[in-house]
C-alpha cells in the first residue's frame, strides 16, 4: 500500500520543494512535470486495485478521524483522468508559461492542486474528502489569481473562493447530518449505518436522508458550478488557460459529480431512486445545462464560450446523477474530461498564437494558419457536439437514454440543450477557424511548438476513442457497457436530429459573417444573474452585514476585548513601573517592611 | 557585669550607631562606627565572650574600619549634599525604626526573661570533669577561671573543622575577586 | 545584673538604627557601614543567647560564639568585595550616591 500514499504525497512534497528550494533555480516546472508523470505511472499501476488503508489522524474521546485511502474502480479510474489530464496540462504549460515570471509559483500551484485532487478522489471518509475539497478550493484560488496584478484576475479568484465557500458550508452540514444518520464517516461502514437507521426510523428516514443529500449537494453546486452558484466559473477563465483546462473543465469541477456519485455508490443506489432530493438534483442539473447553453450562444470570448459549455455539460452529469444513472454521468465525466481539456488547450494554443487575443470575432481563418491545432480542435468540437462514434456521443447517449426512461420532461429539455450545443460550437468554430482573418494578431498566428501540439494530439485521440467500450470499460471510473454499440431508437434519432439542426443553424447564421448577426442581450448578459448578485445581494446584504459586523468589531472586540485588555495591562504595568524606581532606598524600605511583616506574622 | 557598666557600654554603642546616620561627613561616620564597635566589644566582654570581644576590636575596628577609611580617602569623598526631598527618606527611616522597636518590645514582653547563670569558680571547677584531666582546659577550669580562647579553639577544631576550612576557601575567593574587580579593565 | 531582655532590647535597637540608616543615607559607603551595624547587632544577640543558655556542665554554649566567629569572617570578606565593587562603581560613574544610580528604573 505504499504506492497510493506515494501517489497522494508526492505532489505535496514537490509543491513544498518548488516553493521552498527550487524557486530560484528554474527547475520547478520540470520537477513538477516529472512528478506528474510519476503519479500517472502509479495511477496506471493501481488501475483496478481494490484496497483500503488508513491511519488514525485525530482522536477526541470516542470519536476518531482517519486519514485513509480507498482504491476501487471508481477512484482508480478517476485517478487516470486526474493524472492523465494533469500530465498533459503540465507538458502544455511548459511551453505556454515559458515566458511567465512566476513560473515556479504556477507549477507549485499545479502540484498543490494535484495533491488536493488526489486526496478527494482517494479519500476513504467524508472528513478527509472535505479537507481536500477545501484544499482544491485553495489551489484553484491560487491558480485563478496567478496574474494577481490584474484586478479582474484577483477578483475572479476571490469570487470563485467565496462561491465555493457558500456551497461548502452546506456540504459541511450535510456531512454532519450523514454522520448523525449513519454514525460513521468512513465510506465502508456508512451503508450499514444507514440501513440500521432506516430500520429504526422508517417514517422519517426518507426525509432526513433527502435533507442530508441536499446539503451535500450544496457542496457539489459550489464546486461543479451549478445554478445558482455557477457565476464563478466563467470568471475563473481569468486564470492561465492550461489551468482552465485542468481545473475548470476536466477535474475540479467534476469533483462535485464524483462526490455525489461516490455518495450514492457508498450508500447504495436503491436508497436514492425514490428520494425527493434526487429529483431536485436532476432538475438543477437540467436547468443549469439549458441556461448555460443559452448563455454560451452569445459570448464572444473563446474561453467564456467553452466555460459555459462546461457548465452545460456539468449540468448533464449532475442530471444523470440525479436520475440515479450515475454510471452514465461518470462516463460522461470521463469522456468530457478529455475532449474539454482538448478544447481548452486548443483555445490556449490559439490564444498564445494570437498574442493573447481571446475575442473570436478578431480571429478567423486559423485552420489554415494552424492546421494541427485546428484539426485537433475540430475533433474536440465533434466530440462535444456528439457526432456519432466520437466519445461524447456515447456518453451523452447514455444520459439521454436515462432521462428518456425516467422523466420525459427532462429528456426534452436535454434534447433542446443538444440542439444548442452544436449551435454555439459551430458558431465558435466557423468564426474563429474558418473564413477570413479579422485582425492583425490573427494574421500573424502560426502553428505552436511540439510541446503544445503533442498534448493536443494525444487528447484528440482520446477524445475520439475514449467512448468505445474497449477503452471505457478499462479506464472509466464507472461504466456499464451497452448491449449494442448504437441502439437505434427515439433517443438516437432525436440526438442526431438535434445535432444536424444545431450545426445547420450555426452554419446558416454565422458562415462568412464579420460581426455577430444576432444579439440577445438577455443571454449576452448571462440572464443578469451576476448583476442581481452584485446589485442586490452584495450591495444590500453585504453592506448591511458589514455595518453590523463592523459595529461589533469596533465596539466589542476592538474597543472592549482587545483594546480593553491591552489598556488594562498597560495601566497595571504603569502602576508596577512606578514601583521600579531604581532607587536603592526605596527597595531597602520595602525590604524592611517585608521583614517587619515577617516578624509580625511569625511572632504575633 | 555590673549593671552600670552594661548601660554605659550600651549607651556608647547606641549613640555611636545613631551618630553613623547623623554625621554628614563619611569620615565622621566611620569614626562613629568605631565608637559603636568599641561599646559592642565591651558588651561582649561583659558576657564573658572575651575572644569575640577581642576580635571585634581587632578585626572590625582595627582592620575593617581602617579599610573603610582607606576607601573613603581613596575616593576623596566630600560631605553628602542635602537631598532634593530630604523628608521622605528620613520619615520612612524613622517609621521603620519605630515600628521595629514597637514589635521588639511586643516580642520581648511576651517571652520569659532570664537572668545570667553564675560562672563562679565552683561551677567552673565542676565543669572540668568533662575534659581530659591533664588538658589545659581542665586545669584552667580547675583553677576557677574560664579558658575562653581554649574552649573556642577546641570547638572550632573539632566540631567546626570542616566549616572552618570552607571559610578559608571563601576568603581566598574573596581575595581573588577583589583583585579582579580592582584591576583596571583594559579597553 | 542585666537580664537577657536588656541585651536583646539593645541589640534590637542597634539593628533598627542600622535599618533606618540604610533607608535614610544616600552615600553607599555609609549604607554599607549601616549593614555592618546590623550584622553586629545580630552578633550581640547571639553572644547573649550563648551566655544565657548554658550547656549542662554550666559553661556558656560555644555554638553561638562559633556562629559569631563565622559571621565576622564572612563580613570581613564581604567588606573587601563590597568596597572593591564600590571603587569600581566610582570609577565607572564618578558617584556613589544612590539617587544618581537609578539605571534599573523601569
Radius of gyration of chain A, in angstroms, nearest whole number: 28 Å
Count helical runs of chain A.
25
Structural class of chain B: mainly alpha
Low-confidence stretches of chain B: none
CATH domain fold name of the largest domain in chain B: Four Helix Bundle (Hemerythrin (Met), subunit A)
Write the layout of secondary structure elements.
The complex is a heterotrimer of chains A (604), B (187) and C (106).
Chain A: H1 2-20, H2 28-46, E1 51-60, E2 63-71, H3 73-96, H4 103-122, H5 126-144, H6 151-182, H7 187-200, H8 202-223, H9 232-235, H10 241-250, H11 252-267, H12 276-296, H13 302-322, H14 326-353, H15 366-369, H16 371-384, H17 391-406, H18 408-433, H19 440-443, H20 450-465, H21 469-475, H22 490-510, H23 521-524, H24 529-579, H25 584-603
Antiparallel strand pairs in A: 1-2
Helix pairs in contact in A: 1-2, 1-4, 2-3, 2-4, 3-4, 3-10, 3-14, 3-20, 4-5, 5-6, 6-8, 7-8, 8-11, 8-12, 10-14, 11-13, 11-14, 12-13, 12-18, 13-14, 13-17, 13-18, 14-16, 14-17, 14-20, 16-18, 16-20, 17-18, 18-22
Chain B: H1 3-22, H2 26-46, H3 50-75, H4 87-110, H5 121-127, H6 136-142, H7 148-158, H8 161-182
Helix pairs in contact in B: 1-2, 2-3
Chain C: H1 4-24, H2 28-52, H3 62-93
What does this structure look like?
The complex is a heterotrimer of chains A (604), B (187) and C (106). Chain A is mainly alpha-helical and 604 residues long. Chain A has helices spanning 2-20, 28-46, 73-96, 103-122, 126-144, 151-182, 187-200, 202-223, 232-235, 241-250, 252-267, 276-296, 302-322, 326-353, 366-369, 371-384, 391-406, 408-433, 440-443, 450-465, 469-475, 490-510, 521-524, 529-579, 584-603; strands spanning 51-60, 63-71. Helices cover 75% and strands 3% of the residues of chain A. In chain A, strand 1 (51-60) and strand 2 form a beta hairpin. Chain A is globular and about 110 Å long. In chain A, 51% of the residues are buried. Chain B has helices spanning 3-22, 26-46, 50-75, 87-110, 121-127, 136-142, 148-158, 161-182. Chain B folds into 2 domains: 1-76, NADH-ubiquinone/plastoquinone oxidoreductase chain 6, subunit NuoJ (Four Helix Bundle (Hemerythrin (Met), subunit A), Up-down Bundle); 118-187, no CATH class. Helix content of chain B is 74%, strand content 0%. The model of chain C has no long low-confidence stretch (mean pLDDT 89). With 106 residues, chain C is an all-alpha fold. Helix content of chain C is 74%, strand content 0%. Chain C has helices at residues 4-24, 28-52, 62-93. Classes of the chains: A mainly alpha (604), B mainly alpha (187), C mainly alpha (106). Chains B and C meet through helix 1, helix 2, helix 3, helix 4 and helix 5 of B and helix 1, helix 2 and helix 3 of C.
